[in-house]
Amino acid sequence: MPELPEVETIRLGLQRYIVGKKIEGVEVRLPKIVSGDPKNIIGAKVVDVRRFGKGLVTDLDNGYSIAIHIKLTGQLIYKGTEAAKETEETKVSIDKIGGELPNKWTHAIFKIKNQKSKIKNTRLQLPSAKADGGQASQKSKVGNDGNAYLYYNDVRQFGWIKIVKTSDVQKLAFFKDLGPEFLNNLTMIQFNNIVSSSNSLIKPLLMDQKKMSGIGNIYANDALFEARIDPRRKAKDLSDTEIETLYNAILKVLKDGLKYGGATEINFVNVLGQEGGYQDHFLVYGREKQPCRVCKTPIQKIKLGGRGTYFCPKCQK
Q: For the whole model, what pTM was predicted?
């Protein structure tokens, strides 16, 4: 499932391409994905795109917002002339997005007035796509009617889109129950209090979004390796020094994930349809039986909390 770096990469892309533009129309192709009345957002201008943990919120100037959780395989892909011009030398992953858009995995389409955004200097590092088979130029298909389009794709159909009043966004169950977030408002003191008082194993605790939000399986595995902590240890048994080391390790791997444009493990792509690059820099995640990057001991894989857990039996204590 996309985690904080992947969802933040999407947010930066949306911030760059749709803020300041009007929503001209909405086509709902799979009603179970969308709740709320699309009529409430037609004609409204996008004023901001926020992220809460792994959730996205697009705020409009008429008091409504579009809350989105892409879950496991959701994608938000923007097609517009200015995006094509700005990314002429990049490639999109046709394999990952399921073919030219819209396609059978496209469940909602937002028609956007294709005027230049007033937002300037938004930092978005777009990773260079891999030049291999299954790639196609971003300029292969954009709106030919003077408009741009934002497509919501979802192979597994686990994600959701909710159209709600902006004042009600944080009343939604997903947002209401989120714990403090890494790279935002989770302080070292809060993190220490959460970890030192928990009887849970440390790895499942890191992934508990009600305790602390943003980190999932990929970055929990890599952060524990970075901190040299065995994922099977009880959280409350970690020393204060180990907790601080782990906190800093989490910040490091999340920032690395963001630097490389996220990890494309299953279906993740950025808003231009490009794959991320962090999967080429995994420390232990997905590296079962491969040599540890530090000591060359084969990486082991076990199950903790029903999730695949990777670690070095020599380096992590």
A: 0.89
